[in-house]
Amino acid sequence: MNEVQEATSPATSLSGPATCVSKVELRVSCKALLDRDTLNKSDPCVVLMVQNNGQWVELDRTEVIKSNLHPLFGKVFGLDYYFEEVQKLRFEVYDIHGTHSIGTREDDFLGGMECTLGQIVAQKKMIKPLLLKYGKYAGKSTITVHAEEISGNNGYVELSFCAKKLDDKDLFSKSDPFLEIFRINDDGTEQLVHRTEVIKNNLNPVWEPFKVSLISLCSCDEERKLKCLVWDYDSRGKHDFIGEFYATFREMQKISSGNKVSWDCVNPKYKQKKRNYKNSGVVILSDLKLHRVYSFLDYIMGGCQIHFTVAIDFTASNGDPRNSCSLHYINPYQPNEYLKALIAVGEICQDYDSDKRFSALGFGARIPPNYEVSKSGQTFVFNHMF
């Protein structure tokens, strides 16, 4: 980069339009996928591609859901949304065979869909048909993408769950339990928040801690109902239902005061049929950690200040300041390129500095009163309102 570009780039970036960026989370589900397996159903996975300089690049991918043509993926895609940009996305669905890499066989491809992030954000919930090559429809297959914005006053919560004495659903071994948490929306629909890993052969599982945004968990509403389901995993996709319970984020926060937070895991069918039925186990929240996401405004309003320091090269390499071709040319009618950059930056920074005193480093300048040339840089402090 040449010296003119270095001098003018601060002015260009600060005087131009402000960048509108937001954090967005995308959740994906599919319906009526093609069945590519002979003896079982497809094992789908969704790959998210983004277009970068005309090329499609993989950004992330979901987990693989075994033997399921109507998968509801627990994976959350996190993206930065820029209002002023066209951000092209492509969702590709594959049937995964063991440890084979995605796309190794033509039959692995179950369909794809292209759109922009702006379209998803505008609709909040987008449902599109999946297409095979050459624009051919993949039967009645569809993909649904939900979008949620992570706002500045939001944050993340880290949750750790375990369970005790879950029902044994297997004949020759113990249950392989996993936990699903759904948020109940205002319209009564249910949105998957998180699906834990499977703990093999264990009626007292301890699941790995997981982190989720508050907007995803409860829409930042502490009283919003959460529906929690416990299942016994089956490799063929026919999971056995163990039980369910309902909770709120407010209930979960009671753990912070040292209280034990637990819920009876209840199977409604057993409760109706069995007179002495109590529960199918107990699910316990063993730990909760809140992680606040601080915005720039939070720091400023909390007392953070910005100090502005200037370093200027006065050496003759930039030319005689009396020459109009020099970057240091002193024009009686308008500021030179260096002054334009300093004013652009200084006008912004001065609002966040209480004493309005700015340091300046001069290299190669003749410093009064002796007017000796500074070789290592001399510091000045000046008061100036830009």
UniProtKB/TrEMBL annotation:
SUPFAM superfamilies documented for this protein: C2 domain (Calcium/lipid-binding domain, CaLB)
**Which gene underlies this protein?**
CPNE7_2
Per UniProt, what is one Pfam family of this protein? Answer: C2
Q: What is this protein called?
A: Copine-7
This protein's species is: Characodon lateralis
- Domain of life, per lineage: Eukaryota
Please name the taxonomic classification of the source: Eukaryota, Metazoa, Chordata, Craniata, Vertebrata
C2 domain boundaries: 1-130, 137-264
